[in-house]
Amino acid sequence: MLRLLGRRLLHLIPVTIGVSFLTFMLLNLLPGDPALTVLGEGATPEAVEAITEQMGLNDPVLLRYWHWFVGALGGDLGTSLNSGESVTTLLLQRVPTSLEIMLLAQIIALVVALPVAIVSVRRPGSLFDRFAGLTAFAGVATPPFLVGMLLVLVVAIPFGLPATGWIPFTENPVMNLRSAFLPALTLAAALYAVYMRVLRADLVTQLTQEEYVTTARAKGVAQGTIIRRHVLRNSVFPLITVIGINMGALLGGAVIVETLFAVPGLGKLMIDAIYQRDVVVVQGAVVVIAVAFVLINFAVDLLYAALDPRIRHDRASH
Amino acid sequence: MTTTPPLLEVENLRVVFDGVLGSVTAVNDVSLSVDRGQTIAVVGESGSGKSVTARTIMGLSTPPGRIAEGSIRLAGRELVGLTDRQWRGVRGSQIAMVFQDPMRSLNPTMKVGTQIEEAIRLHTDLSKKQARARAVELLDAVRIAAPRRRVDEYPHQLSGGMRQRVMIALALSCGPELLIADEPTTALDVTTQQQILDLMGELQADMGMAVMLITHDIGIAASYTDTVFVMYAGQVVESAPTRRLFTDPRMPYTRALLDSIPSLDSPAHEPLPAIEGSPPDLAELSAGCSFSARCPRATQTCLTQRPALIEHEAGRAWACWHPVESKEAS
C-alpha cells in the first residue's frame, strides 16, 4: 500500500512535465506575438525586436521551455506579459478563492445529497424517490450558467445576497461567505445530482445484493439502521472516488461560474489571460491545475486507505 | 405419545413471487414441524424451495416474494402477519440463522466483535462493556483461538472456517430456540465442513436449541439430523425419521436421490444412476404430481392429480400415488 502511494506521488513528475510541455508547445502555436502583447499594437519594430531579444523569444522553443522549466522548479513561473507581475504571486492570490468556492460547493452538495439518497432508498419508487431523481436529472441537465442566472433570480434578489463581486475572507469573513454562497451553490447543483445518483445506486445495489445485509436483517436490525450503520460505510467508497474526480474537474471547470459572478479565482484568471494572449499566466495556471489533480487523487487514495480496513491491514502486512 | 406442542409448526405455507410475466409459486403447500432440541434436515436440489422456506420462517422474504397462504407458529405464536417491528423482536432473538457463504455474510467494514455486539445489544439490556465480554465468550465457545484479539479483527483477516464460526457465534448470541442453518458448509472445504457441523451439534446439545439444517448434501443430512424433509419443486414430498428415510425410502424421488449417491461398494468406472430430465418450471406446474415427468412409476393418475402429503405411518409421510414398496414390510 505504501509502495502504491509512493508510486502515485512519483506520477507527479511525468504528469507535470508532460502537461507543462504540451501547454508550452500549444501556446507557442497560438497566433500573435508575445512581444506585441507586452508593448501593445503600434509599437516600433525596433522596440519589438529589443523586447523579443530580451524575452529570449529568438531562442529555439525547446530551449525556451527548458528555461521556463528550470525557473518553475525554483517556484518562479515567469512574469505576466500584461501586468509584469510574478505569475507565482498571481496564482497564490487566486487559488485560495477558487479553493474556497470549490470546498463550499462540495460541502453543500454532500450535505444535501447524503440525506436525500438515504431517504430515497428507504422506499424505492416512492413519491420522494421519484422527485429526488427528478431534481438530480435537472441538476445534471442544466448548464451552470443557466443555474447561476436562475439562482440570482430566485435566491440572490429575494434574499438580498450579492450576485457579483468578491470580498476576501481576510477583509470580512461574513461578507466573504455571502459573496461565495451563490457561486458555490451554482457549482453544487451539478455536484449534488452526481453524488445523489451515485450514492443512491450503490446503496440500492448493496441492499439488494449483499449478503451481509441479510445477516443484519436476520439479527433483527431495523432497515434504517442497516442503511446508516452497515451499508453507508461500504457505499462511501464509490462516492469518494467521484468526489475526487469532481474536485479536479472543478478546479478547471470553475471558469464559467467565476466569470458569471465576477469572482477573482483561478478560472477567471485563466480565461482573462487567454483573451489577452498572456501565455505565461495560462501556462502557470494549467500546470497548477494538473498538479492539483494528481494531488487530489493521491488524497483520495489515502482516504481509501484510512477508511477501508481491507486496505489498511494490507499495508500493515507488507 | 408426547403432548408438548412442537417448537415450530409450519402449515400449508405457500410463497409466491409475483413477476411481470405471472407469478411463480416457490413454496407450495409446505407443512413441517420441529420439536424443541430436535434437528431436522430439509433436503432438495437447487430451486426446490428449501431456502425460500427457511427465509420465510425468518421473516426475510422480501417483495416480490410474499406469503400467499399458510401459517408459521413459533412456540404457539403465529408469526405470519407480524409487523416489521414485531418480526425484529423474533429475528436474532428466538430464531437465528447461519448462511451459506461466510465470505459474504459478514460486513467487511465492521469488526467481527462489533457485529456480534450489535445483536446482543439489540435483544438484551447488556451494557456495551458486557456485550463485548459476551462476544469474547461466544468466540471462545465457537473455538476461535485468542478471542480477545479476534473480536477486534475484520472479517478479511479470518479464514472461511473462522468466519463461519463467527457467524455461528453471532447466531447463538441471544440464545435462540431455533437455529436455521442454510447450507452452512457448502462454501467450506471438506475438513472444515466436518468441524463446523460437529461444533454446531455440540453447541446445540449445550444450549438445547432446535436446528433446521437446509442442505443439498444427503450425506450431511444422514449424519447430523433426526428427521428429514425432502423437498421437490416447492413441495415436501417425503418426511421421515432420518434412519428410516435412508434405509427405506418410499417416494420414488427420494429413492432416486439415494441411488445417485456414489458408494464404495459400487463397481468403479460404472456410470452413476442419475435422475433423467430436470425439475419442472415452477411457473408452469401441471395439475399432477410435480415429479411425474421424471418418475419411472408414473401412471395416468400421477399426470392429472396431485398426491397430498399424507402421514401413512407414525412419523412418516409421503406424497405419492405409487410409493416404492417398503423393504421392512417384506
Q: Which structural category fits the helices and strands of chain A?
A: mainly alpha
Report how far apart the termini of chain B are: 27 Å
Helix coverage percent of residues of chain B? Answer: 25-40%
The number of distinct helices of chain A, counting runs of at least 4 residues, comes to 14
In the CATH scheme, the class of chain B would be Alpha Beta
Distance between the termini of chain A: 8 Å
| Largest β-sheet summary of chain B | 8 strands, mixed
- In terms of DSSP E residues, the strand content of chain A is under 5%
Classified by CATH, the class of the largest domain in chain A is: Mainly Alpha
Biggest interface goes to: A-B, 22 and 33 residues
**So, CATH architecture of the largest domain in chain A?**
Orthogonal Bundle
- Quaternary state, please? heterodimer
- Total number of domains of chain A: 2
Beta-strand content bin of chain B: 15-25%
Percent range for helical residues of chain A?
over 70%
Secondary structure layout plus pairing:
The complex is a heterodimer of chains A (318) and B (330).
Chain A: H1 2-29, H2 34-39, H3 45-54, H4 61-73, H5 87-122, H6 127-141, H7 144-159, H8 173-209, H9 211-219, H10 223-253, H11 255-260, H12 266-275, H13 279-307, H14 309-317
Helix pairs in contact in A: 1-13, 5-6, 5-8, 5-10, 5-13, 6-8, 7-8, 8-10, 9-10, 10-13, 12-13, 13-14
Chain B: E1 8-19, E2 22-34, E3 39-43, H1 50-57, E4 65-74, E5 77-78, H2 84-90, E6 95-98, H3 112-123, H4 128-141, H5 147-150, H6 160-172, E7 178-182, H7 190-207, E8 210-215, H8 218-224, E9 227-232, E10 235-241, H9 242-247, H10 252-259, H11 300-304, E11 310-313, E12 316-318
Parallel strand pairs in B: 3-8, 3-9, 6-7, 7-8
Antiparallel strand pairs in B: 1-2, 1-4, 4-5, 9-10, 10-12, 11-12
